[in-house]
Specification:
Structural class: alpha/beta
Shape: globular
Number of strands: 19
Distance between the termini: 32 Å
Strand order of the largest sheet: 9-8-7-3-2-1-11-10
Helix content: 25-40%
Bound molecules: 1-deoxynojirimycin
Largest sheet: 8 strands, parallel
Radius of gyration: 24 Å
Number of helices: 14
């Protein structure tokens, strides 16, 4: 058995982290919902893929009003997904394969089924129980007018009225009441939760909406939505990215550092890039997602700007950069790249969230170019995997999965769909259970079907099919992850001028080079040491001819 390198405090800096959305990964008990034992059963797959860590989206007890991001008990496992004993087994199965485990902490809001919220409802206005949340009287003589016209993240109002007439704030669904981070119980309880999982042996934490916890809603009346949106987000905004949120993370950092190795944390903070270093530094959470590439087109100029900017931000704050092309909240990147470039609808909404409605509903809209989208995705993925920093990959992207936009309204689960009355279909299309086998019940996901139907084309992208195809996305990811180990000795790179605006090339200090042709005209590069390519390439007379929308790695 390999020895788990427990004392490496810097393991996360250049790690490849694989995001598991547990309810859609693998279903061991045949109830249609993925579970913890399902993850354990696929530990060999993860090891063979070559990932350094997995990040598990929430697996805690939840009524699933928001796919598990409505947590009813932070220190337990949803009985439909298993038990704490199953969690421990999974942890040791992954650790014994040198794979670290990151769990998701959701501190901005609980589920309305959480015992605290239930107690708050019973205890009534002015009680200590209500003070753990953000309750407020309504406007108007009887308080029956909503405290403000703010719109929640999934649509609909941000306030819901309870039986005795008070209103509570929820920045997301009504089943996700916002916590009051000025309340000491709240602060103490999350420290307890962090210790609980760190004591069990988890290696790190992903912090949900890390920029929102602390709020100042002392003004009366509250600003309107328009006024709120106009307030600069500079540390003093009533709701977003307040400077005081760093006090919470300084306290957590002290707790993380009590462990050996210190626990890592990565912030999901949707803040302007100049404010990212506040989260991504050794005194705070340490690392932060960089979502710039989610919003970028498949475009060399945009990629170069984003890479340069984020590497310099990370270096300046003592962090390492992160690269993300897909996650459980956005349209999968082969689909985004299969839409016209720039991937924007006429109304300006970005394709990361809205590519699906565009494809589904606009008869004059674009046709998804599946093959081109996947080709570009392969090129973009091998480009980012060659960069210094850590890469977060989302389950199924190693299979080249496209978004499933065929889901029927009756099959939808995302609160976005319900709260916008179907106006926006939401994020279900990237959460359909993985195809493990080419055919059979739920493509090997579980013995009795799956909680989302899988489309006919899933078999072609299954693990079983791709295992047997040397050119498949799965084989490409495996090769890239294995070769990448040779690049992880340093955290720097230098751009190489290519003479073309649509071709990017960079060199790592060990002499390895990555060249990506974002254009369509082939590009010739002098080398005879091609180590990897996202499409088949030909090397002749000391030159590689790189076709359009293709990346090559060149050994040093
Ligand atoms: C961000 C998570 O990634 C998303 O899935 C969730 O809906 C919101 N935070 C609310 O928790």
């Amino acid at each position: 058995m390999s020895i788990f390198p427990a004392s490496d405090a810097n393991w996360w800096r250049q790690a490849v982290v694989y995001q598991i959305y547990p309810r859609s990964f693998a279903d061991a008990n045949g109830d249609g919902l993925g579970d913890i034992a399902g993850i354990t059963s696929r530990a060999d797959y993860l090891q063979q893929l070559g990932v350094d860590a997995v990040w598990l989206s929430p697996f805690y007890p939840s009524e699933l009003a928001d796919g598990g991001y409505d947590v009813a008990d932070y220190r337990n496992v949803d009985p439909r997904l298993g038990s704490l004993a199953d969690f421990d087994k999974m942890l040791s199965a992954l650790h014994s394969r040198d794979i670290r485990v990151i769990v998701d902490i959701v501190p901005n809001h609980t589920s309305d089924q959480h015992e605290w919220f239930q107690a708050a409802l019973k205890a009534g206005r002015g009680s200590p129980e209500r003070d753990r949340y953000i309750f407020r009287e309504g406007k108007g003589p009887n308080g029956d007018e909503i405290p403000s016209d703010w719109v929640a993240s999934f649509g609909g109002p941000s306030w819901t009225r309870v039986e005795d007439g008070q209103w509570y704030l929820h920045n997301f669904a009504p089943q996700q009441p916002d916590l009051n981070w000025s309340n000491p119980d709240v602060r103490a309880d999350f420290v307890k939760t962090i210790r609980f999982w760190a004591d069990r042996g988890v290696d790190g934490f992903r912090i949900d909406v890390a920029h929102m916890l602390v709020k100042d809603l002392s003004m009366d009346p509250l600003p309107t939505k328009e006024e709120l949106d106009a307030i600069p987000v500079d540390g003093n905004h009533p709701m977003w990215d307040r400077d005081e949120v760093q006090d919470v993370y300084a306290q957590w950092r002290a707790v993380f550092n009590e462990y050996d190795p210190p626990r890592m944390a990565v912030a999901e903070a949707w803040v302007a890039s100049d404010r990212v270093p506040r989260y991504a530094n050794p005194h705070s959470l340490g690392q932060s997602f960089n979502f710039d590439l989610l919003e970028a087109d498949f475009d060399a100029v945009q990629f170069r700007r984003i890479v340069t900017h984020n590497l310099s931000l990370a270096a300046g704050s003592g962090s390492s950069s992160t690269w993300v092309l897909s996650n459980h909240d956005v349209v999968r990147h082969p689909t985004r790249y299969g839409l016209p470039n720039p991937a924007r609808r006429a109304d300006g909404k970005p394709a990361i969230k809205h590519g699906q409605e565009w494809l589904q509903r606009d008869p004059d809209g674009p046709v998804l170019q599946r093959e081109q989208g996947l080709r570009r995705a392969r090129a973009a993925t091998t480009f980012i995997l060659g960069l210094p920093g850590s890469t977060y990959i989302y389950q199924g992207e190693e299979l080249g999965l496209h978004e499933v936009y065929e889901l029927d309204s009756s099959e939808r689960q995302d609160p976005t769909f319900f709260r916008t009355h179907g106006e926006e279909v939401g994020r279900d299309g990237c959460r359909v259970p993985l195809p493990w086998t080419a055919s059979g019940t739920s493509h090997g996901f579980g013995a009795n079907g799956s909680h989302f139907p899988q489309p006919d084309w899933f078999g072609k992208y299954s693990v079983e099919t791709e295992e047997g195809d040397l050119e498949s996305p799965l084989r490409m990811y495996r090769s890239a992850l294995a070769l990448r180990k040779q690049l992880e000795t340093s955290e720097t790179m230098e751009w190489i001028e290519t003479g073309r605006d649509d071709v990017l090339a960079f060199e790592r200090p060990n002499g390895w080079k990555v060249v990506t042709n974002f254009g369509t005209e082939p590009y010739a590069y002098a080398t005879d040491t091609v180590a990897l390519s996202s499409e088949p390439v030909f090397v002749e007379n000391g030159k590689v001819e790189i076709p359009g929308e293709t990346t090559v790695w060149i050994a040093g």
